[in-house]
Amino acid sequence: MEEQVMSAAAQVIIAITPIVGIAIGGMVVFFSLLWHHLEVRRQILSGTYKREKFNLKAYSLLIGLLLTGIGLMLTVVFALMGGISPSLLGGLIPLSIGICSIIFYKVNDWQ
Q1: Burial 26-44 (b: 16+ CB within 10 A, else e)
Q2: How far apart are CA 74 and CA 95, in angstroms?
Q3: Which pLDDT tens digit goes with each residue over 57-87?
Q4: What is the pTM assigned to this prediction?
Q5: If we measure between CA atoms, which residue out of 77, 80, 75, 79 comes closest to residue 99?
Q6: Rounded distance, CA 18 to CA 20, Å?
Q7: Which of 41, 88, 90, 99 has the smallest C-beta neighbourhood within 10 Å, fewest atoms?
Q8: Cα dihedral angle (66, 63, 35, 16), rounded to 10 degrees?
Q9: How open is the CA angle 61-53-43, to the nearest 5 degrees?
């Protein structure tokens, strides 16, 4: 079987893609937190601020569904690409956290 060699430019692009994705995601999170902070600050100054109660049950359902879906897809892809190997943990960990969050949603009746 003949092995193909990638060009140096392709290797650089493949190496930089996750770094750029993490940097852009970090900027989105930073600016959304900054915007929320400024919004709450303006509401406090104008006297219209009301603190909302955090809905843990809805949050655990949302996170559970998202992580279960992502973990299931990653597990299937990693299993098809590499079989049973340590890389399979990249899908099994979010899958198990998602399932546990959904179980928490079902068990949690105190809210």
Answers
A1: eeeeeeeeeeeeeeeeeee
A2: 9
A3: 888 889 999 999 988 998 888 888 878 887 7
A4: 0.57
A5: 75
A6: 5
A7: 41
A8: -50
A9: 125
